[in-house]
Amino acid sequence: MMTGIGMSGVGIGTIIIPLIMASFINSYGWRTSYVIVGFITLLSIAGIAQFLRREPSITKSIPQDGELIGTDIIGVMADRLSCRQAIQTRPFWLICVMLFSFGFALQVIMVHIVPHAIDLGIPETTATSIMATIGGIGIAGRVVMGSVSDRIGNKSALNICFALLSVALFWLLFNNEL
């Protein structure tokens, strides 16, 4: 569930950024607006990065109960695949291809959904609210599926997500009204 909550930031950005960008573009033009947002993003990431900490097993931090962290974690990590071993597995490449394909399709839709809606005769303000709706549904979906994946497993949750996304993409092909 924590992954779902953390990833819900993508949905929050999908709701907020179009509103900010519309305001900036109206005031400064699109080129200047993207430079401004780029600098804000750079400064935000650099500032937030200052609060990151190294993994306790690497720094050998001592928790409050006084025991040294690292000895138990190293034993657990030895049972897992190394990066090189993981790259050589079929499931790794299947997940990469699936995530790339769906990610590509989603980004194409996100870029073109508002102009497409306007071309269908939907008013501009209503068309831009589609982006906010997508962001809101994304927040709810990430939190819900994060919780569901804790119960049924990541593989089953990922299959459910891909199935729902496939249905939504096919539905979008045949939908010509709001």
* Structural class by SSE content: mainly alpha
How large is the radius of gyration?
A: 21 Å
**Which regions have little confidence, pLDDT < 50, spanning 5+ residues?**
68-78
Tell me what portion of residues adopts beta-strand conformation.
under 5%
Q: Between the first and last Cα atoms, what is the distance in angstroms?
A: 32 Å
Helix fraction by DSSP (H/I, runs of at least 4): over 70%
Average the pLDDT over all residues and give the rounded result. Answer: 79
Largest sheet: none
What's the structural domain tally?
2
| C-alpha geometry | globular
Number of helices: 8
List the helices and strands in order. HHHHHHHH
Q: How many strand units?
A: 0
Structural commentary:
About 6% of the residues have low confidence. The protein folds into two domains: 139 residues, no CATH class; 26 residues, no CATH class. It has eight helices and no strands. It is globular. It has 178 residues and is mainly α.
Outline of the structure:
80% of the residues lie in helices and 0% in strands. It is built from eight helices and no strands.
